[in-house]
Amino acid sequence: MSRVGKRPIEVPGGVKVNIDGSKITIESGSNKMEHIVPDNFKVESADNTITVERPSDSRKDKALHGTTRSLLQNMVIGVKEGFQKKLIVQGVGYKVQMKGKTLVLDIGFSHSVEFTPPEGITIETPSATEIVVKGIDKQKVGETAAEIRDFYPPEPYKGKGIRYEGEYVRQKQGKSIA
Questions:
Q1: Does any domain span residue 28?
Q2: Helix, strand, coil proportions of the chain in percent (round to 5)?
Q3: Is 160 within 8 Å of 152 (Cβ atoms)?
Q4: Over 90: is that where the pLDDT of 114 sits?
Q5: Is the pLDDT confidence value at 1 over 70?
Q6: pLDDT tens digits for range 54-64
Q7: Are residues 72 and 111 in the same domain?
Q8: Distance CA 87, CA 96 (A)
């Protein structure tokens, strides 16, 4: 049995779980997420816990067991607390700012780069070199942060670029005259 899949998911107070066949809806306040469970998987909700049971011991079902449980766990955390990723912009004269709902990045190009976040994602800029991506869907938050980082990934010679908070970029030595 999957070590991840067999663990029950704790449902905190204020979170409602609705199971309708293979469709699971988790909501808390105004936050609501839905997920369709793979065929024949059994999801049960009782005593503030959610359990996931797989239909057989086939290789495919074993692989989906832990994945399904993790997705449901992330939905519960997302509707209750939400997720966030922080990005740091490094480089002389590089800055970011919000104009309405659009993120404007001045990152050394001849033009400003504008990025509009997808539905359900909010972006904040607490300072001129920090970007905070927030949302209830962990996958969307990570994907949006990765798209922003792809505008100028950190380079190993001068360390300029957009990096995740806490990301280590190994510095390389430049050319040397022998």
A1: yes
A2: 20, 35, 45
A3: yes
A4: yes
A5: no
A6: 999 889 888 89
A7: no
A8: 11
Domain span at 138:
83-164
With vertex at residue 135, the alpha carbon angle to CA 2 and CA 103, rounded to the nearest 5 degrees, is 135
The tokens describing 51, both together, are 């359990």
Q: How many domains in the chain?
A: 2
Ramachandran area for residue 161 (φ above 0: left; ψ -120 to 50: alpha; else beta): left
Tell me: do 64 and 15 sit in the same domain. yes
Half-sphere exposure of 61 (CA within 13 A, CB side): 13
Position 92, amino acid: V
Strand partners, 23: 20, 36
Rounded average pLDDT over 35-41 = 90
Residue 73 sits at the vertex; the CA angle it makes with 79 and 118, to the nearest 5 degrees, is 50
Which of 162, 169, 170, 168 lies closest to 87 in space, CA to CA? 162
Asked if residue 1 belongs to a domain, the reply is no
Smallest CA-to-CA distance from 34 within 24, 21, 20 is with 24
Domain boundary, last residue among 80, 105, 130: 80
Give yes or no: residues 160 and 93 share one domain.
Answer: yes
